[in-house]
UniProtKB/TrEMBL annotation:
InterPro entries: PEP_carboxykinase_C, PEP_carboxykinase_GTP, PEP_carboxykinase_GTP_C, PEP_carboxykinase_GTP_N, PEP_carboxykinase_N
Keyword Lipoprotein set for record: no
Active-site residues annotated for this sequence: 286
SUPFAM superfamilies referenced in this protein's UniProt entry, alphabetically: PEP carboxykinase N-terminal domain (SSF68923), PEP carboxykinase-like (SSF53795)
Subcellular location: Cytoplasm
Name of this protein: Phosphoenolpyruvate carboxykinase [GTP]
Described function: Catalyzes the conversion of oxaloacetate (OAA) to phosphoenolpyruvate (PEP), the rate-limiting step in the metabolic pathway that produces glucose from lactate and other precursors derived from the citric acid cycle.
Source species of the chain: Desulfoluna limicola
Catalytic function, reaction form: oxaloacetate + GTP = phosphoenolpyruvate + GDP + CO2
Length: 649
């Protein structure tokens, strides 16, 4: 194998590694180790143990016996606590670590290596020296747990073998729900693909005073992450977003053939019992799980690996096999597919940062149930009406409170999740948390305009990042996970979606989604949604029919929007509710000044980046010119009926 891993413990050969490990393993663990044929994996395990000096080493093969050891270890170590409902446990992060520590997350880079302008970098030599200093002896008194996983189905074009090394039973327990432990397939998959990712983590003493020294380092040279003094899964379970970054890197280098995206994958049923597969981007906390669950056939709610197959179709797989989902506002009304799983005994659930009430029942903000009066949550003891030192109400649960479950527990789980051929993907959506600008759904004229929709996602900052606030740009909902230059990533997007290898009739529809419009943004006073969360089922169904050429559309400078009669029929068919023309007019009128301001914002921001493809600016110029002309004819607010009449003239 051509890949060469960093020797952080100074062990360079397989012989040295085996001698070191044999002296520190019991017979059962050693027997497991000897089943691993990937030489560099064994050397990496030895180096991690040499540096971190654990008291013992455990190799997790994914067997029921090993999983029982992991679950019991998490409870014994106090990383999780049991709940009255069987298979349910809960975990609290430190109150200062309730999201990704982006300020302490760095790419290790060579001096001449380009790194995204949206990321932190550190010279590779300096970063590795800090890793060795901070991780030296960090696992003393602990067990080092080793697992061999696949990010995606075994045999898939875009799956990734991944080695996880951690001292946290909670992190390992989470990995068992979120990823595929493939101890027996790992060696063959590494041989097939020619590489594997490595993740080395320790929570250390798990104290607030250590958080200033918490670090997440990503070494792009040898595709290894290091996570130090932290416990939140977004900082520690780096098979998720850490390895996603490496996959983004791989896709950019292999541009035109594959993509690695922050997207859900779901199947929508249409007329004639057909299923049309969607993939869609949205920043964390902006409804990606809700949108994925709105489909009839669930594959994933967070990440997608995509490629162009030999038959000219775009194929997608989910590198994960579980859900690490935000639970705020998850309730029976908006999430009838997910909510029952969170209240039943048969589903294994790891809760994090929710409230545990007086009856030891998990509670969270917006669950639609009777409000708890007392309990304990991420900041300690809690009771209704409690305020913090600044006089602000302390919420029932942290906004980033989550539940971790296996996807196969979902009623709409699709067995296609494990198909190495992936699902044929026909619709791509991009959305953010946009209260006042874009309509609920619109379709790009062509792939270049589709790439521009993704590049121009804007969202309210969410609780997934420590210290984030306000409104921020969120390109492709993937910007925090793009290691290299933004211009290179955008070029890879243009190249992939315009690729001539995509067959005629198979080129995916690319669209914008926005179900966060408010009444206030359209002339009212309320900040409530203009419509309901569940309306997304109609927007998706309209896109499904649009891909198959079964509904019309109205041309606008930003793309194609639905006609009223089509939506009215879909609301009646899918949601069994009326769709007033007045609501349609508010939702789909073009608010020219708002959109032009958004275009100007993006033009200015991308103008500061290096090597942004010229065709991106060409799309924005074309759209702005069309909007300015439209304003000259109809004013600042243009109704869809005016547009339809104009197009017919």
């Amino acid at each position: 194998m051509a890949q060469k891993k960093e020797m952080i413990g100074g062990i360079e050969t397989l012989e040295e590694a085996m001698a070191f490990l044999e002296a520190r393993m019991d017979a059962e663990t050693l027997a497991k180790l000897k089943q691993i044929r990937t030489k560099d994996a064994v050397i990496t395990i030895a180096n991690a143990a040499q540096l971190c000096t654990p008291d013992s080493i455990f190799i997790n093969t994914g067997s029921e016996e090993d999983l029982r050891f992991i679950r019991e270890g998490a409870l014994a170590a106090g990383e999780e606590e049991a709940l009255p409902m069987p298979k349910h446990t809960f975990h609290f992060e430190l109150k200062e670590e309730q999201g990704r520590i982006t300020d302490r997350t760095f790419y290790l880079a060579e001096p001449d290596e380009k790194v995204s302008s949206l990321a932190n970098r550190i010279d590779r030599s300096e970063g590795l020296a800090d890793v060795k200093a901070k991780m030296g002896g960090i696992m003393k008194g602990m067990t080092m747990i080793v697992g061999l996983y696949m990010r995606g189905p075994v045999g898939a074009f875009a799956s990734n073998p991944s080695l996880q090394i951690t001292s946290s039973f909670y992190v390992t327990h989470s990995a068992e729900l979120l990823y595929r432990n493939r101890f027996n397939d790992f060696d063959n998959e590494v041989e097939r693909l020619g590489y594997f990712y490595t993740n080395i983590h320790s929570q250390g003493l798990n104290r607030s005073e250590d958080l200033p020294n918490a670090r997440v380092y990503m070494d792009r040279n040898d595709q290894t992450t290091y996570s130090i003094n932290c416990t939140y899964a977004g900082n520690t379970l780096l098979m998720k977003k850490g390895n996603h970054r490496f996959s983004v890197d791989k896709a950019v280098k292999n541009r035109g053939n594959e993509l690695s995206e922050h997207m859900f994958i779901t199947g929508i049923e249409g007329p004639g019992n057909r299923t049309t597969w969607f993939a869609g981007a949205a920043p964390s906390g902006c409804g990606k799980t809700t949108t994925a669950m709105a489909g009839h056939h669930f594959v994933g709610d967070d990440l997608a690996q995509m490629w162009i197959a030999e038959d000219g179709t775009v194929r997608s797989i989910n590198p994960e096999s579980g859900i690490f989902g935000i639970v705020e506002d998850v309730n029976m009304e908006g999430d009838p597919g997910l909510m029952p799983l969170l209240r039943e005994e048969k589903t294994e659930v790891i809760w994090s940062n929710v409230l545990i009430d007086e009856n030891n029942v998990p509670q969270w903000t917006g669950n639609g149930e009777e409000a708890p009066k007392k309990g304990r949550n991420f900041q300690g003891a809690w009771e209704a009406g409690m305020v913090d030192e600044k006089g602000k109400p302390v919420p029932v649960s942290h906004p980033n409170a989550r539940a971790t479950i296996v996807a196969s527990a979902l009623a709409n789980y699709s067995p296609a999740s494990e198909d190495p051929n992936g699902v044929e993907t026909s619709v791509i959506t991009y959305s953010g948390r946009d209260a006042d600008t874009m309509p609920p759904v619109w379709v790009a004229r062509n792939s270049d305009h589709g790439v521009a929709i993704g590049a121009c996602i804007v969202s309210a900052a969410t609780a997934t990042e420590v210290g984030a606030s306000g409104v921020k740009r969120a390109p492709w909902a993937n910007a925090p996970f793009i290691p290299g230059a933004l211009g290179e990533y955008m070029d890879a997007q243009f190249t992939f979606w315009a690729n001539e290898r995509i067959a005629d009739g198979k080129r995916p529809l690319m669209a914008g989604l926005n179900y966060f419009l408010t009444h206030k943004a359209r002339g009212g006073e309320s900040t409530k949604l203009l419509g309901e969360k569940r309306d997304v089922k109609v927007w998706l169904s309209w896109l499904e029919r649009r891909f198959h050429g079964e509904v019309g559309g109205i041309e606008t400078p930003i793309g194609i929007i639905p006609e009223y009669e089509d939506l009215k029929a879909l609301f009646a068919e899918i949601l069994d509710k009326p769709y007033p023309m007045e609501l349609y007019t508010k939702q789909f009128s073009i608010y020219v000044d708002n959109i032009v301001s958004r275009i100007d914002l993006q033009t200015e921001a991308y103008g500061k980046e290096e090597d942004i493809p010229a065709r991106f600016f060409d799309v924005l110029k074309e759209q702005k010119a069309g909007l300015v002309a439209l304003k000259g004819s109809f004013g600042s607010v243009v109704s869809p009926f005016d547009l339809k009449e104009k197009n017919a003239a």
